[in-house]
Design goal:
The protein is an alpha+beta fold. It is built from 6 helices and 6 strands.
Length: 162
């Protein structure tokens, strides 16, 4: 029987809560995950525990703007480099330019501008925990934004593809 995506999310949230309670002294804890787009490492950051959310609204929370998250997850699975951004944001342009100059083929996903689609973009921020745009994924790993990409390129950690 296949479990719904929302139910799997709930299960992994409970796993994260249990791990965090058992390993309060550790900042990072690894867990095996059958989902390729789910992080296999959980970080300690405050997230409202499911037992503090009324059962009547849990589905609403789990399904809120899920389409945009699923779309980005699929792109991250299909492309080596994904930049998620928005129109009119100069940092998105800088990240894309730095990656292109370093020889990377970039898959770009744009969601609105400063004046539109901010509610949809919020779902991505909640999913990743990353507070700003762009969100740059390289080999299925969120590496940060423009400043972070430039630092990785400058350090040599992020090299031109072969």
């Amino acid at each position: 029987m296949l479990l719904s995506f929302q139910f799997r999310c709930l299960i992994y949230s409970f796993i994260e809560i249990l791990i965090n309670r058992q390993n309060k002294n550790n900042h990072i804890q690894s867990v095996d995950s059958p989902l390729p787009h789910f992080s296999r490492t959980f970080m300690n950051r405050p997230i409202l525990a499911a037992d503090h959310i009324h059962p009547a609204i849990r589905d609403t929370i789990a399904q809120h703007q899920q389409d945009i998250v699923t779309e980005v997850q699929q792109a991250v699975q299909q492309h080596a480099v994904v930049v998620v951004g928005m129109a009119q944001n100069p940092m998105v342009t800088k990240a894309r330019k730095a990656l292109a100059e370093a020889g990377f083929e970039v898959h770009y996903m744009e969601y609105g501008s400063y004046l539109s689609q901010w509610r949809r973009r919020n779902a991505l921020k909640m999913w990743t925990g990353w507070p700003t745009f762009p969100m740059v994924f390289i080999n299925q790993v969120l590496v940060g934004g423009a400043k972070d990409v430039k630092a990785l390129i400058a350090s040599g950690e992020l090299k031109k593809p072969a």
